[in-house]
Design a protein that fits this description.
Number of domains of chain A: 1
Number of strands of chain A: 0
Number of strands of chain B: 9
CATH architecture of chain B: Sandwich
CATH topology of chain B: Immunoglobulin-like
Low-confidence stretches of chain B: none
Low-confidence stretches of chain A: 4-16
Distance between the termini of chain A: 33 Å
Oligomer: heterodimer
Radius of gyration of chain A: 17 Å
Largest sheet of chain A: none
Mean pLDDT of chain B: 89
Strand content of chain B: 35-45%
Order of helices and strands of chain A: HHHHHH
Mean pLDDT of chain A: 90
CATH architecture of chain A: Up-down Bundle
Chain lengths: 173, 105
């Protein structure tokens, strides 16, 4: 029983593991890579929703995600080009991609209302995770003022998405 | 004075008295997901014009469902205020964006 409980606890820890080790401070090229990757992953999730969902509210939300994240990433690419920074792959980007791939394969097995519910619930959780990382690590660690400002605007946009996703989640329950 | 003149003069006087003050257009600037000013004070007949400076689509949507103005990226949108009262509004795409329109008769 105790062994089972602790195994359960270990799984919980893995799932809720923060994106960053305590005290780790990413560099600007790494931050740019993480922010861009986070956006791309949400676009991929939205594209899956557009393939699978027939719910108008869910589809509208997914289209909003594609539109906004495409625009933010366009700005991010323009900024790294201007600053002559090459985004650098790193453990956090890899962890995000890996988690997102696992989630996509899980979602792709669901259909109808079950898919809608799971997709939207994951959108709430995903934006929460990314916003937490932006607030606690990415924004404070950013050295370049323009990068910091883009991340701050990004945070406001993604906080909006989190609230929007919560509204949709309440409707598809 | 003939009755015709009286009524004409009365009509002119009435028209002058009841002529509404020049309706105004009040701008709300949207920049980096903020409605500025947050509160709009207006009169019935005035127009609110939202100027979307963001490269993102927004909306100005009344919480009570009375009106909904869609704002394409870098585009403006207008609303003529018809009824007095205070209406809270938000952006449907980014519900953390909020504002108020306060209309007096």
């Amino acid at each position: 029983m105790i062994a089972k409980l602790s195994a359960g606890f270990a799984v919980l820890c893995l799932l809720s593991a923060p994106l960053f080790a305590q005290g780790a401070k990413p560099t600007d090229p790494q931050i740019a890579h993480i922010a861009y990757t986070a956006g791309q992953l949400d676009i991929e999730a939205a594209k899956l929703a557009l393939e699978k969902s027939k719910n108008k509210e869910v589809r509208d939300f997914a289209q909003d995600m594609v539109r906004d994240h495409t625009e933010v990433n366009k700005q991010a690419l323009a900024l790294v080009k201007k600053l002559n920074v090459t985004p650098e792959d790193n453990d956090t980007s890899r962890a995000l991609s890996k988690q997102a791939a696992a989630k996509r394969s899980e979602l792709s097995k669901l259909n109808g209302a079950a898919f809608d519910k799971a997709y939207v619930a994951n959108e709430v959780a995903y934006h929460k995770t990314v916003n937490g990382a932006l607030e606690s690590t990415l924004i404070p660690s950013a050295n370049n003022a323009e990068l910091k400002s883009l991340l701050q605007t990004g945070l406001k946009i993604f906080q909006g998405h989190e609230q929007h996703a919560e509204h949709v989640a309440a409707d598809v329950k | 004075m003939t009755p015709g003149r009286v009524s004409f003069a009365a009509f002119v006087a009435l028209a002058l008295l009841s002529a509404p003050a020049q309706a105004e257009t009040i701008q709300v600037i949207i920049d980096k997901l903020v409605f500025a000013p947050t509160d709009v004070n207006a009169k019935v007949g005035d127009t609110v014009e939202w100027v979307n400076k963001d490269p993102l689509a927004h909306t100005a949507t009344a919480t009570n469902g009375e009106w909904n103005v869609t704002l394409a990226p870098k585009q403006n949108g207008q609303l003529v205020l018809k009824t007095p009262g205070t209406t809270e509004y938000f952006c449907k795409f980014h519900p953390n964006m909020k504002g108020r329109v306060i209309v007096t008769p």
